[in-house]
């Protein structure tokens, strides 16, 4: 049995999450039972939603248990199998968590899925052709429901969700505007991801200033907004929403550290007759096949070229995750485990 | 030609609206052109949306023009007609404004509608079987879409919208909880309007205290909320929303006087996967016939017994309106003009 290094949640953050909330632990992988599969992880996905689970608060997901391996999406290969549906060498995607190996009861529906790496690199199944890509798809297609010629805006534009959103939105004939932090990310958004414009929120000290920049980038107003951050950015975009605009609320990363961030002008929801809808993509499994098909096609044909930030080795996961929460990543944040 | 007393908007409010924003003016009604009808108003409707129109601000409706008669819904009778579709004595509902008579181009679609007063008193066409009733219907049926056994909450519970909402919600098998100001209104909500419980928000100094009262009144949480007021009440109800709850935003009366009221915990929209949607009932004319049919049936069968606050004479309209904004009315606020 190989030795398995894991990252546990050791204690909960008080305010900002810090490295000492996590603990590196070594264990032996247990012997397999019938139906189980041993997966060696190639990549671990780091995602903003994990910060929410570190709190012991009412939320959509159970809080991450203390003293247990942090949960998270993984891709890897089967190295041992007692399940007839999987054989050694299969490339698979699952929820293996922050560790080098996982033992998976592969008969549980959705626990482990074989993926084809002929045209799509394995790591992309954690990003553009995985949960983040489907997240962008659901928010855009099912909540925002864009029409040709409308203007779409997304915050955290160069992340895994933002990259996929740009390709999906452009494919629907929409003006597509990103909001990101810093000139490098904004240049990349326009040059590589296909955004029509990208606004550097770090150049703006308040919502009024950011709102002015949005007016220039969105001369016809904003019809759809995909919300990843909350706070000042949400306040600014709200002031630019057109009548009957739709806001898909996917994340409020700005408020994860404790102090709730109020929304300055909720009356705009009424005066502009907006629809604001929160969602969790894992609650809409019925749309995954359709979304993954479109996303896979966009990657295979080069219309979606997602960038990845890759940290090396399981011990690097906590720092990489804390960096992600501060926007230090550039594209999809992964940890390489081989 | 009869003399026609009118209330004009003389100047815009700075902060709170005051009586001196209005001006009483006398004029002669002009001679009728072909296709026109002269209507003598029996009742004028006073509604919270009118406060929004007094500001010169971006909103769903054009601002009320200065030096012009205040707009508003009216019921009355035809006293002169140069239109073959209307004859003297017809009872009609229209948008005659804050005045005793109006000249209506009755060929304009929707400008004037004949109504039957056999089973429904004329004034109710401005309330339960008019715009406020249809407003309750649209928010409940089209946005909240209640299911049997769910819990519905409405603020401003004893107003024209709230009364209709209670009857419509109970008819759909929902636990129905009101929020109103003062013990008399709360007792009336339960005894006369059919609410299962009613919370007196005046007993609560902050959202946390109101939230605790809501927990008692809504032991299974809140699935649908019809928002008329905003501010502290909205903050409190948000903390009690169940997963996949729906909020229909119809009014934010608490914020009309200038200072915008922030929303304290927008992240709940995400964590509870809420849908929050603003609407203006006049933009959904296609549902009016279905809604009016149900509302008329509820009134005719005594299941909806709306209460009215009636001020006498056009000169009394400004004070009655300012009282409405402060919640001094009890039931639908009208001005009797005959």
UniProtKB/TrEMBL annotation, chains A, B:
<dbReference type="GO" id="GO:0016628">
    <property type="term" value="F:oxidoreductase activity, acting on the CH-CH group of donors, NAD or NADP as acceptor"/>
</dbReference>
<dbReference type="InterPro" id="IPR013149">
    <property type="entry name" value="ADH-like_C"/>
</dbReference>
<dbReference type="InterPro" id="IPR041694">
    <property type="entry name" value="ADH_N_2"/>
</dbReference>
<dbReference type="InterPro" id="IPR011032">
    <property type="entry name" value="GroES-like_sf"/>
</dbReference>
<protein>
    <submittedName>
        <fullName>NADP-dependent oxidoreductase</fullName>
    </submittedName>
</protein>
<feature type="domain" description="Enoyl reductase (ER)">
    <location>
        <begin position="17"/>
        <end position="335"/>
    </location>
</feature>
<keyword id="KW-0560">Oxidoreductase</keyword>
<dbReference type="Pfam" id="PF00107">
    <property type="entry name" value="ADH_zinc_N"/>
</dbReference>
<dbReference type="InterPro" id="IPR045010">
    <property type="entry name" value="MDR_fam"/>
</dbReference>
<dbReference type="InterPro" id="IPR020843">
    <property type="entry name" value="ER"/>
</dbReference>
<dbReference type="Pfam" id="PF16884">
    <property type="entry name" value="ADH_N_2"/>
</dbReference>
<dbReference type="InterPro" id="IPR036291">
    <property type="entry name" value="NAD(P)-bd_dom_sf"/>
</dbReference>
């Amino acid at each position: 049995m190989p030795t398995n290094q894991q990252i546990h949640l050791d204690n909960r953050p008080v305010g900002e999450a810090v490295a000492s909330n996590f603990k590196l632990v070594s264990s032996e992988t247990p012997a397999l039972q019938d139906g189980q599969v041993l997966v060696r992880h190639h990549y671990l996905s780091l995602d903003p939603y994990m910060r929410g689970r570190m709190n012991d608060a009412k939320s959509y997901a159970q809080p991450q248990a203390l003293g247990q391996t942090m949960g998270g999406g993984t891709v890897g290969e089967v190295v041992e199998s007692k399940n007839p549906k999987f054989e050694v060498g299969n490339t698979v995607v699952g929820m293996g968590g922050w560790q080098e190996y996982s033992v998976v009861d592969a008969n549980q529906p959705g626990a482990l899925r074989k993926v084809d790496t002929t045209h799509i690199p394995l790591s992309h199944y954690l990003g553009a052709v995985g949960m983040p890509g489907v997240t962008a798809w659901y928010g855009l297609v099912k909540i925002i429901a864009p029409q040709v010629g409308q203007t779409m805006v997304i915050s955290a534009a160069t992340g895994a969700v933002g990259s996929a959103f740009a390709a999906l939105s452009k494919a629907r004939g929409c003006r597509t505007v990103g909001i990101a932090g810093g000139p490098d990310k904004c240049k990349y958004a326009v040059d590589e991801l296909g955004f029509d414009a990208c606004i550097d929120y770090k150049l703006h000290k308040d919502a009024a200033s950011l709102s002015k920049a949005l007016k220039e980038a969105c001369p016809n107003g904003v019809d759809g907004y995909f919300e990843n951050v909350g706070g000042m950015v949400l306040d600014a975009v709200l002031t630019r929403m057109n009548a009957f605009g739709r806001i898909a609320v996917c994340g409020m990363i700005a408020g994860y550290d404790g102090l709730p961030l109020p929304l300055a002008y909720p009356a705009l929801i009424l005066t502009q007759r907006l629809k604001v809808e929160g969602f969790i993509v894992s609650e809409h499994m019925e749309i995954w096949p359709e979304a993954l098909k479109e996303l896979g096609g966009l990657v295979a044909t080069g219309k979606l070229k997602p960038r990845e930030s890759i940290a090396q080795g399981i011990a690097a996961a906590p720092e990489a995750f804390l960096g992600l929460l501060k926007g230090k990543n550039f594209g999809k944040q992964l940890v390489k485990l081989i």
